[in-house]
Amino acid sequence: MAQQVPITGAGASAKIRSPVWVAVLVLITLGIYGIFWWYFIHRELRDHGRAKGTDELGTSPGKSVLAVTLGALIIVPAIIGIVNAFKRVQAAQRMNGIDPINGWIGLILIVVIYPAFYGYMQSGLNPVWRAQAAVPSANVAATP
Length: 144
Prior knowledge:
The protein is mainly α and 144 residues long.
């Protein structure tokens, strides 16, 4: 079960998902869950970027999905989309003081064990969302 956490300053939320279940669901659904997951993580990253006042984490989750689905027909947009997604996850980690995940490991996973790639990216996002959950909201009054 995924844990919902608020994205401070965005009025939105993100989910801490199990990396193992993400990979398993991508495998079981033959990649269909991966398309939805791709949209959701990019929406969460976009909202987090807006809260931080930057476009570095992406602006359009829909375009990200199109790049890796329809763009895969001509290969280049899908590759660029995957690379940019990895850069966004790494940027989100750096913004929260977390050591970024390794892009080379991601490359190996996407070539050798495709579903594990999704789990690896989710394992990089989970600490970002946990850090968000630990940040107290500015709108909540302190209680004695």
